[in-house]
Design brief:
This protein is of the alpha+beta class. The chain has helices spanning 16-23, 122-151, and strands at residues 4-12, 40-41, 55-60, 68-78, 82-89, 94-104, 107-117. It is built from two helices and seven strands.
Length: 154
């Protein structure tokens, strides 16, 4: 089965505390997800901040408006440095997403590394070439604009 990585970086003109407070709150996920994806958190009573072992479930429509359940677990958190979410149920055979931040002159460098394996073996390889990788880029491009709207452009 094929394995892929997608990396996105963004410089943000804000403090590490401000960026961490924003990205570590599950309640902000919808703000950085394109509306057409129909993103909706279905977990009840989520706390304000992520913690290791936290399970987040949501409905999302990544393709053709088809709603699906996606469940992720926050597996690692290092305050003001990074957190990792891993898919427990959803569209991928494997999904591991590192969210890293580090202070730089004038702000914060945010780096996302998504390691993933599409479903369906060889068909997943074709799907990745045809639309999965492009859809990931589109989602992270949207997120870049949403973060710029929140914090300003670097």
């Amino acid at each position: 089965m094929a394995f892929y990585q997608f990396t996105a970086t963004q410089k943000i003109p804000a403090s590490i505390e401000q960026v961490w407070d924003f990205i570590s709150s599950p309640n902000n996920l919808k703000e950085i997800t394109p509306a057409y994806m129909g993103f909706e958190i279905t977990s009840a009573g989520l706390p304000e901040k992520m913690y290791p072992g936290m399970i987040i479930s949501y409905k999302v429509s990544p393709l053709m408006g088809i709603k699906m359940t996606w469940v992720t677990e926050i597996t690692q958190v290092e305050h003001h440095r990074y957190f990792v979410d891993e898919q427990r149920m959803g569209p991928y055979a494997m999904w591991h997403h590192q969210h890293k931040i580090e202070a730089i002159d004038g702000g914060v460098l945010m780096t996302d590394i998504v390691s993933y394996q599409p479903p369906l073996g060889f068909l997943g390889v074709i799907a990745n070439a045809l639309f999965i990788r492009g859809k990931l880029k589109e989602i992270f491009d949207f997120r870049t604009l949403a973060v710029e709207k929140k914090f300003g452009k670097f």
